[in-house]
Amino acid sequence: MARIDLVDLAHSYGGNDAPQETFALKPVTMTWRQGGAYALLGPSGCGKTTLLNVISGIITPSRGKILFDGEDITPLSTQKRNIAQVFQFPVIYDTMTVGQNLAFPLKNRGVPKAEIDKRVAEIGRLLDLEPYLNRKATRLTADAKQKISLGRGLVRSDVAAVLFDEPLTVIDPELKWQLRSKLKALHRELDLTMIYVTHDQTEALTFADTVVVMHDGRVVQSGTPAELFDKPAHTFVGYFIGSPGMNILPAEVKGREAKVGDHVIALNRSYDDLPAGAKIEIGVRPEFVDAVAPGPGLLSAKIERIDDLGRIRFARVRMGETKIAARAPAAFAGSDGNAGLKFDPAHIHVYADSLLVEGAA
Amino acid sequence: MDKTVNQKAWFLVLPVFLVVAFSAVLPLMTVVNYSMQDTFGNNQFFWNGVGWFKELLDPSTDLGGRFLASLGRNLFFSLVILAIEVPLGIVIALSMPRQGWTVAACLVTLALPLLIPWNVVGTIWQIFGRPDIGLLGYVLNHIGLDYNYVSNDIDAWVTVIVMDVWHWTSLVALLCYAGLKSIPEAYYQAAQIDGASRWAVFKAIQLPKMNRVLLIAVLLRFMDSFMIYTEPFVVTGGGPGNSTTFVSIELVKIALGQFDLGKAAALSLVYNLIILIVCWIFYTVMTNAGVERKVQAEKEPAAEPKPSAALKPAPVLKPKEGVV
């Protein structure tokens, strides 16, 4: 039960003197509110697990501070931080029953027995572990084991935050879905701050109300799933979130016009003072590009293939070196392997050196 | 669907069968043969049936009395060294470093006693403990302790036990260390987060994860100590009196000292049987203790060579004889 503030937090496995480019976690300042569900999303090696371990105290950060409800807990050990963490692989205490496993964190903290029994029964009920409470934990399936790990994280009612480090990696896809809904329900019921690390965007977007996207040790954007989808702050976010990812096209932007190759695309906003010398690109999601028959005034491209995803079809087209994905109507097949592209100006974003530029109205 | 019947495949088994027959079965059968007979000089044999076995299990006879007394001593000895070496090995393994050059240093130091031949270990301690020239014996006597393993039963026992602990605790420690190293880091992190104390971590994680190697360690140490011969023979020669005469020492006395081949053969068969039974119990416990362990148990022929080694005391006293 705590608000978490990260203040100029950074970590380098090579020590504080290493060049900042090599930091596993580059300086980040951020506030996470009490009771929120957050997801740290990014590809492997982006620093998300480092950030999680810094928060839980397994790693001491090279610099910066972590505050729980305004109190600096950076020097405190993991035990004293009052945090729960669920790991990638289920951690089960072999000799104990499921119930004893759940009771372990409470017992270690000297909670009275009556209170322990009450909490264990409650968590057992929430996680559907009731029938197993008196059974040895070793013989259960992987997902039941992971539920126990989860339960140990949730059993303490006073934890500042529950951290999840890709907890569904070892779970079968079908059960993954169930467990994820379970987590979401638990989050509503228990009013705990939850931080969830994953590289799977579906997991992140369905679990969290705020998704923190990380790339190369840096937090590139933090926002609701809708914000990440509609207005990626960084080309990486555009590309990483959504399937297929955002189309990024090199362009020359001037005022309300973007010039891609020889073709001019109209923009909704005006971009007048773009930084000189910066790499300018426009980004538009495939959902807002329509592949139609080639015609005058349309950007024309070569069709490479058409992916049918059932509910929606995407044409994969190529324009010179640039690959673009565009929505294709049901009957669309192009003509002579060519297609014209129609952009929705309201959803075109302009990026300078990969960062979003807000145009003037 | 019929299985192809090809009896020629038996030829593939034949070499193994022959080797085992000549190396184990035939010598063992010789012993069985002896155990049913009484021998006199000039190669005279007289049928005695199960007479020796009856005598062996009857404490009122000379043979039975000696056998049961030495068996009792042997079991007590095994119990004591297990009670010392297992906990001590665990403590050593727990306090060993996990990384850095000190790991190699520790491993080498620990492995040293294991590399010394049995009779050399015996000789080292035999001299080490002597009150006149041995460092240990001399110092103990000098500071006022009346220590003499040649004349005092308790001193002899202490010497033999300390020697065994010195020689074999490393084995337990190394096995435990291997068990500890195989525990994933996440367990320790989870325990830290669960607020577990050092003792709780040991009880909830380290000990359960080590129990497989501990079983092996107990099995190996029990077998070895139950068959112990060389070291106590070199140090005390089974004395003072009969106080450190273990079963194998008694066996050699009967077989080679008195040349009572019948009695000795009966004794070695019973001795062998005890070791086989204990092996079997351990093996069953190991394979049945949890589903996960089953996989592991198949990789443990470490328990297998022991029974065949246990066959040794009877006919193949030669390697040990060299010590005499």
Short structural summary:
By secondary structure, chain A is an alpha+beta fold.
Oligomer: heterodimer
Number of helices of chain B: 15
Largest interface: A-B, 24 and 21 residues
Spatial arrangement of strands, main beta sheet of chain B: 1-2
State the major sheet of chain A.
6 strands, mixed
Task: Figure out the total of helices of chain A.
Answer: 9
**Physical arrangement of strands within the biggest beta sheet of chain A:** 6-7-8-3-9-10
Instruction: Please mark out the parts of chain A with pLDDT under 50 across 5 or more consecutive residues, or reply none.
Output: none
The amount of beta strand of chain B, in percent, is under 5%
Low-confidence stretches of chain B: 290-324
| SSE arrangement of chain A, N to C | EEEHEEHEHHHEHEHEEHHEEEEEEEEEEE
Distance between the termini of chain B: 63 Å
Count of distinct strands of chain A? 21
Structural category of chain B is mainly alpha
What is the residue-mean pLDDT of chain A, rounded to a whole number? 85
First-last Cα distance of chain A: 42 Å
Q: How would you sum up the global shape of chain A? A: elongated
- What proportion strand of chain A? 25-35%
The helix fraction of chain A, in percent, is: 10-25%
- Computed Rg of chain B: 24 Å
Written account of the structure:
The complex is a heterodimer of chains A (361) and B (324). Chain A is an alpha+beta fold. In chain A, 24% of the residues lie in helices and 34% in strands. Chain A has nine helices and 21 strands. Chain A has helices at residues 48-56, 78-81, 98-108, 113-126, 142-154, 173-190, 201-207, 225-230, 235-240, and strands spanning 4-11, 25-32, 37-41, 63-68, 71-72, 83-86, 161-165, 194-198, 210-215, 218-223, 247-250, 252-260, 263-271, 280-284, 289-292, 299-308, 313-319, 322-328, 338-343, 349-352, 355-357. In chain A, a hairpin with a 2-residue loop joins strand 9 (210-215) and strand 10. Chain B has 324 residues and is mainly alpha-helical. Helices cover 71% and strands 2% of the residues of chain B. Chain B has helices at 10-35, 51-56, 62-95, 101-115, 118-128, 135-142, 153-181, 185-193, 198-226, 230-235, 247-257, 261-288, 291-298, 305-310, 318-321, and strands at 37-40, 44-47. The longest helix of chain B is centred in the first third of the chain and has 34 residues, at 62-95. Residues 290-324 of chain B have low confidence and may be disordered. Chain A binds chain B through residues 56, 58, 77-79, 83-85, 87-89, 91, 93-96, 104-105, 108-109, 138-139, 149, 152, and chain B through 184, 186-187, 189-190, 192-197, 200, 203-205, 207-209, 290-292.
